[in-house]
Amino acid sequence: MTEHGEVAIVGAGLTGCLLACFLARRGHQVTLYERRADPRGRPPERGRSINLALSERGIDALRRIGLDDRILAGALPMRGRMVHPVHGTPGFQPYSVRGDRAINSIGRGALNDALLEAATALPGVRAVFGHRLTGLDPATGEMVFRTGDGEAKATAAVVLGADGAGSAVRARLKEYGTLTEDVDHLEHGYKELTVPPRDGDFALDPGALHIWPRGTSMVIALPNPDRSFTCTLFWPRTGPGGFASLATAEAVERHFAAEYPDLVPLIPGLSDDYLRNPVGTLGTVRCASWHAAGRVGLVGDAAHAIVPFYGQGANCAFEDVVALDRCLDDTGGDFAAALPLFEARRREDTEAIADMALANFVEMRDKVASPLFQLGRRAEHALERALPGRYVSRYELVSFSTVPYARVRRRVRRQHQVVAALAAAAALALGAIAVRRGP
Ligand SMILES: Cc1cc2nc3c(=O)[nH]c(=O)nc-3n(C[C@H](O)[C@H](O)[C@H](O)COP(=O)(O)OP(=O)(O)OC[C@H]3O[C@@H](n4cnc5c(N)ncnc54)[C@H](O)[C@@H]3O)c2cc1C
């Protein structure tokens, strides 16, 4: 396959637009096919998350194409979690040992618009909107789209599916017989509400990610540049306290007053918004192979959507783009060789973050509220200070480094084993001293 053949990217979301920037830099002609209308300047689509946390992996990818400063200019740094108990004062838990590192709250719409703008400003990139992929022949690269004017067809040397968790490209590869998938839907869904500015200012501290942990459920809030916060409820769909159980304004108000009393005065029209806004689906996509016929590949959520509890889905997808670019470097720009290499190099990492994201849900909704957990975090930070660079917490490695996710998981396991062995040795030594001293 030639280095400068035409590449079709299906999906002009976060991954597709960033990928277009990287491929244009390599000299490719790129067409982005997007099912939506041009999103630039439009209000965000209902039911999609409004803001997200961008951290080092995503920023590293943006830095490589000189977009980091421009994009971070519109972001709000969050240096830790503000944990809200049912009653009492919220407590701040810094993310990093020095307390100075931050993850960045950014509007999905603004990020997508900036990436789309950057991609389409490059020579060789065009974006076609209102084109929903419905058919694909991996053997020939022929694509079929549903458009406002009926069916349209196009052919490309390479077709990359960046069309998100419900990927149509993935579905076509399944039909083609080269892909099997396992889509694991979470029992919890999500719903978004807005905390508007109060007297023209933020109603909560904008330097933190706010969490209301409630055992099996939680609410989080991230700040927006217009001084509002987007609140996301992560609740079970059914059962007591689940979305389905709160079907009337009275039930919603009663539930919030009992579980989230400090949020009630911050959200005017709470029950109206609650009853109007949709419940989104969360889940993990595991599939193989991510490529077929030497010309079709999957990237980002299309290949490996994860639950959002580590704030890593988009960061991981951006890291994919860097990894695929490296594979193209290492194969002389040959997609037929680069796509399998990409899957071989990346699979273990995406599986690791999928598992860590599921585990972090339990930490966020339950453990962060426990005094024992908080003691553990303080002990971990003390170890990081005592052994700089030798003991590094999982959160720090995931959010503030580009150490591959699988290596993070292995390293954290090793660190925990060493700490457990040291704790056991210390307990034995203390026991021996106590025996020598007698009662
Ligand atoms: C509630 C929530 C909170 C999140 N928070 C974070 C966070 O804090 N940090 C983080 O890093 N990640 C977060 N994520 C994950 C992040 O949103 C995704 O990982 C990211 O959007 C993946 O980008 P993508 O471009 O691969 O897919 P998408 O963003 O889904 O984009 C896919 C694009 O393809 C288009 N498309 C779909 N089907 C077709 C078709 N048939 N034909 C043509 N076009 C099509 C879509 O319209 C869309 O534009 C969160 C997700 C959720 C649900």
UniProtKB/TrEMBL annotation:
Pathway: Cofactor biosynthesis; NAD(+) biosynthesis; quinolinate from L-kynurenine: step 1/3
Pfam family, one: FAD_binding_3
Gene3D superfamilies in UniProt: FAD/NAD(P)-binding domain (3.50.50.60)
Enzyme Commission number: 1.14.13.9
Cofactor(s) for this UniProt protein: FAD
UniProt keyword list: FAD, Flavoprotein, Membrane, Monooxygenase, NADP, Oxidoreductase, Pyridine nucleotide biosynthesis, Transmembrane, Transmembrane helix
GO-annotated biological processes: anthranilate metabolic process; kynurenine metabolic process; L-tryptophan catabolic process; NAD+ biosynthetic process; quinolinate biosynthetic process
Any GO molecular function: FAD binding
Catalytic activity, reaction form: L-kynurenine + NADPH + O2 + H(+) = 3-hydroxy-L-kynurenine + NADP(+) + H2O
Enzyme class (EC, first level): oxidoreductase
Stretches assigned to the FAD-binding domain: 6-174, 288-326
Transmembrane stretches, start-end: 6-25, 418-435
Similarity section: Belongs to the aromatic-ring hydroxylase family. KMO subfamily.
Function: Catalyzes the hydroxylation of L-kynurenine (L-Kyn) to form 3-hydroxy-L-kynurenine (L-3OHKyn). Required for synthesis of quinolinic acid.
Listed name of the protein: Kynurenine 3-monooxygenase
Organism for this UniProt entry: Sphaerisporangium rubeum
